Amino acid sequence: MAQTTKERQIRREIDESFRPLFERYEADPSNAEGVPMAQLSERLLESSTLPRMRINAMLRRADADANNRITYGEFVVEMTRADDDTRRRMGIGRRFINRAVLTAVPGHRPRTVDSPDTFSPWGEQAEMESFSDAYDCRPPPIFIPLITAAEIAVFLYYALEPASRAKWPVTASSGCPMDSPLLYDPRKRWEAWRFLSYMLLHNGYIHLIFNCLVQLILGVLLELVHKLWRVGPVYLLGVVAGSLASSCFDPRIALVGASGGCYALIGAHFANVLLNWEEMQHDWLKNPVSFFGSGVFRLIVLLLLAGGDTGLAVYNRFFIDTRSQTSFAAHGGGFVAGLLIGVPLLRNIDVKQWERVMFWIFLVLYVLLMTAGIMFNIFCGNEGVDLCYGPPRPTPNSLLQFATRPPPVR
């Protein structure tokens, strides 16, 4: 079958880029059956921006006779059927420097090349075989421990401050200072800081302990890979999304607690699994460490955590007569924000073409939803809430009747 113009162009560029590398090895009689796969993998790792795992997988497919050696013919077949993005990252194309030839020169030290395997604005390198290689303490987790310490400090301040302690005594499930300027109060929507600062308040020490444990466990694991400049914005934007969602769907409910941020971390973990599934599943049954770091195990844990907390919240809200109820809107808003903003912000070990498309789709959806929530609060206010949802019912627990203690909502 005659080759197309594109196929001839691809073959010519493959010959220009890689033929000298194979000729150098084939000059040695011991390499008559092809270049040893391990040596070729190291050379290609130096000359391309593909991660080691992708290179090894490509070479295993190319090794048609399974002798752990790659002939130039086998290599050409594999590169010809590879997609354009893989060939581009292998350095094939006239607009790329022929790094493969340079690295074959004895004594030549290849320059460091920023890899697009991670989210491109950060320009980090990603030469790793599996997702577990991405964990490091440079820098160590900073944001999540600091935000947790801040929440504990604010809780202790209001619990020990004499006036607040007399008015709002702290128990296992109560004690939130409802007159605090940090509280999200739907009657004071114009005080915009409340859409974020409510995360520092908690309604009882059980509420505080649960949120701190969740964000420390989930947040530190994320921060070890994705670092504070990604995890911090995801957490804070999830907190804001939680209060915006609550203001739209639970428009007369006060809001306290860091659950919006915690659910943003859960959503971000789902985004992390979505982006790095292939890397997480690499040799995932090889040893216990690989299994516990796999995408399958992560999904099971996340579903159990989110499902268990949601089930408990449903029970508390609809089957227990309590003044403190869980805001599903805040939890849902945080989760959706963590998922949508996590895809554009979190580190992607190996970017694929469909993930580039998903990047923009999720980013646009996040911006549209946040804009809608902001517009609702700007143009509707309490009058708009009454118009959309009807006037408040005169119940003893109504938030708008502040003669008695208003019910905070997590």
CATH architecture descriptor text of the largest domain: Up-down Bundle
Total helical segments: 17
The SSE order reads HEHHEHHHHHHHHEHHHHHHE
CATH superfamily caption of the largest domain: Rhomboid-like
Low-confidence region ranges: 94-127, 394-409
Kindly state the number of beta strands. Answer: 4
- Compute the separation of the termini in Å: 67 Å
Helix content: 55-70%
Radius of gyration: 28 Å
Summed over residues and divided by their number, the pLDDT gives a mean of 77
- Count of domain modules: 2
Subcellular location: Membrane
Protein name: EF-hand domain-containing protein
Family: Belongs to the peptidase S54 family.
Transmembrane segments: 204-221, 253-277, 289-308, 328-346, 358-379
3D structure, described in words:
Pfam families: Rhomboid. It is a multi-pass membrane protein. It is found in: Membrane. The chain has 410 residues and is mostly helical. It folds into 2 domains: 5-89; 142-385, Rhomboid-like (Rhomboid-like fold, Up-down Bundle). It contains 17 helices and 4 strands. It has helices at residues 5-26, 37-47, 52-62, 72-81, 84-89, 99-103, 143-160, 162-167, 194-197, 205-226, 228-249, 259-280, 288-292, 295-319, 328-345, 353-379, 381-389; strands spanning 35-36, 69-70, 254-255, 408-409. The longest helix has 27 residues, at 353-379. The radius of gyration is 28 Å and the shape is elongated. It starts with a helix and ends with a strand.
